Amino acid sequence: MSQRTLVLLKPDAVRRGLIGEIIGRIERKAGWQITALELRELDQETLELHYGEHKGKPFYEPLVAFMSSGPVVALVVEGERVIEGVRALAGPTDPIAAAPGSIRGDYGTIVRENLIHASDSEESAIRELKIFFPGLS
Ligand code: IDP
Predict the structure, then answer these.
(1) 137 located within any domain
(2) ipTM of this model?
(3) Beta-bridge mates of residue 79
(4) Would 84 be classed as within a structural domain?
C-alpha cells in the first residue's frame, strides 16, 4: 500500500544540525522516496491550520512560538506504509518515553522540542500535505 506523508524537521532539529541524520534514516528505508523538500519559516496562519486541533490546550501557544522560532524542513515522503512507518521511526511524542533507536528516543529530552512531525493517519496526511505543498496533485 503506497502512501504519501508529511514530515517536518522541527526548528530544534535544524538548529542542532540533525537534518542529514534524520533524513538519512528515512532515506535508508527500502523503497521510500523523498518527493519534495523545502527549508522554510512557518507563519502563524500555517501553524494555526496545521496544529488547529490543539488550539486551547496549554501547550498550544508555546508550541506555535517554538515552531516559528527558526526554519523547519518540510518533506513529502512516499512509499509502502510510510505513514505508520515514519511514526515508528519518530517514536512517541515524549522523547524520554521513546525507545532508543527512534529519532525522538535518540536525540530528544523535551516533549515540545521533539525534533520531528509526521502525519498520524491517511486523513491527516491529505490535510497536512495540502497546507504545506498545495501544488501537489
Ligand atoms: P505528535 O507530534 O507525536 O503527533 P501531538 O499530540 O499531535 O503529538 O502534539 C503535537 C506536538 O505538540 C508534539 O509533537 C509536541 O511538540 C507538542 N506537545 C504535545 N503535547 C505536549 C505537552 O504536553 N507539552 C508540551 N508540548 C507538547
Answers:
(1) no
(2) 0.98
(3) 3
(4) yes
Nearest Cα neighbor of 73 from 1, 121, 21 is: 21
> For position 99, which CATH number holds?
3.30.70.141
Instruction: Quote the number of domains for the chain.
Output: 1
Distance of CA 112 from the midpoint of ligand 1 (Å): 6
* Domain-located, residue 70: yes
Q: Is residue 13 a contact partner of residue 70, using CB atoms and an 8 Å limit? A: no
Residue to mutate, 42, 59, 96, ligand 1, most ligand atoms under 8 Å from C-beta: 59
Instruction: Print the domain residue range for 82.
Output: 2-132
pLDDT along the chain (137 residues), means of 10: 97 98 98 98 98 98 98 98 98 98 98 98 98 93
